[in-house]
Amino acid sequence: MIQEPKGKLGILTPGMGAVASTFMAGVIAVNKGISRPFGSVTQMGHIRLGKRTENRNPLIKDFVPLAKLTDIVFGGWDIFEDNIYESATNAAVLDKTLLDQLRPELEAIKPMKAVFDKRYVKKLDGHWVKKANTKMELAEALMEDIRRFKKENGCDRIVIVWCGSTETYIEPGDVHSSIEKLEEGLRNNDPAIPSSMIYAYAAIKLGIPYVNGAPNLSVDVPAIIELAKQTKTPIMGKDFKTGQTLMKTIVAPGLKARSLGIKGWFSTNILGNRDGEVLDDPESFKSKEVSKLSVLDEILNPELNPELYGDLYHKVRINYYPPHGDNKEGWDNIDIFGWLGYGMQIKIDFLCRDSILAAPIVLDLALLMDFAKRSELYGIQEWLSFYFKSPQAGAGLHAQHDIFVQQEKLLNTLRHLMGEELITHLGMDYYY
């Protein structure tokens, strides 16, 4: 039984910089009739139902009982005290003419003090930060923030979407192996528990759906997965699929479908926003690199296609370039080969806007995770892999990276939950 989305939905974002401010400003602009929610699959995408001859292709938002955009309340945490109008102005993603039309609403959205430790994000330093003796006390302070926000804003439900920075690379360890060990680690300030995991623990302990939009470890450890099952909470991550990786998950499946070989794939990025500055630190870049490098292996399956992809050389680079601001440029050189081994090349130069691509992802994931919670789904939500660079998968399973397979899984999950027939594309007549 799927509960109806009655009342207000609070969307809280740890991190209220470029991505979060662009997302919040965008939803408010849509609600005021200033623009349209382009890029949002839930708002602009259609879903086919039944046979092709039935011509049933409603918008997803008209088919699935999602929260209405006018019922959303925004909040979050940040290491800077700037309200969302100030944050969006500093990020310089959206033009001032648009922001000034939204100014009263944006100025009313102010961040709560963040849980932040510079050891995990070495390139940032902020003063709007919580103080406590232990990480468990910080988690309890976050839980109190959530309860207070929900009460003061009259929210019926809350969803949390991480929009903060990429943390230094951390391998899963013993402290992450069970709820008991994680809680002991929180009480003892274990260094293997980064700030993002404190947010995740606090949210999931309260049964609040949690999305990890960065390549941080956060919810991708046994202890958090176990906690999500215990509290019947949907979780999903990690790392929003926006620029260059979006292109890879579109192009690579097509090359594989045509059995075209790939010798090398060189990728480099330049960007100048806060994310670019953070990734200028090698330890933070390591987290992003692992996220980006896994994509091609999982799509191409070199162990099954050694002649086509067994010797693929894959290199990823990210360079901090302040003049570009939030306008990220992703450049790819792809060396492929076809019939009889003859070589060819593909060049892609994607001049994208990082936060413009990420903002509708934040909206879709918040709405769909709220829907998942009301549908009594919990644990890892693999059907939302469509939105992530390095999607989580169940124990012993490989993540699916092919965007077209991911899309079909997303749509079929919605059909299944709403009691509609799954689409297999086999419904046709054969003539002999």
Set down the secondary structure blueprint.
Layout: E1 8-14, H1 18-31, H2 41-44, H3 60-63, E2 72-78, H4 84-91, H5 96-101, H6 103-107, E3 112-113, H7 135-152, E4 155-162, H8 179-187, H9 195-205, E5 210-212, H10 222-230, E6 234-237, H11 244-257, E7 261-271, H12 274-278, H13 282-300, H14 306-309, E8 313-320, E9 329-337, E10 343-351, H15 354-374, E11 379-380, H16 403-417
Parallel strand pairs: 1-2, 1-4, 2-3, 4-5, 5-6, 6-11, 7-8
Antiparallel strand pairs: 7-9, 9-10
Helix pairs in contact: 1-4, 1-15, 7-8, 7-9, 8-10, 11-13
What does this structure look like?
The protein folds into two domains: 8-240 and 355-417, 3-Layer(aba) Sandwich (Rossmann fold), CATH 3.40.50.720; 244-351, Dihydrodipicolinate Reductase, domain 2 (2-Layer Sandwich), CATH 3.30.360. Helix content is 38%, strand content 16%. The protein has helices at residues 18-31, 41-44, 60-63, 84-91, 96-101, 103-107, 135-152, 179-187, 195-205, 222-230, 244-257, 274-278, 282-300, 306-309, 354-374, 403-417, and strands spanning 8-14, 72-78, 112-113, 155-162, 210-212, 234-237, 261-271, 313-320, 329-337, 343-351, 379-380. A seven-stranded parallel β-sheet has the order 3-2-1-4-5-6-11, with helices on both faces. A four-stranded mixed β-sheet has the order 8-7-9-10. Helix 10 (222-230) links the parallel strand 5 and strand 6 (234-237). Helix 1 (18-31) crosses helix 15. The chain is globular. The termini are far apart.
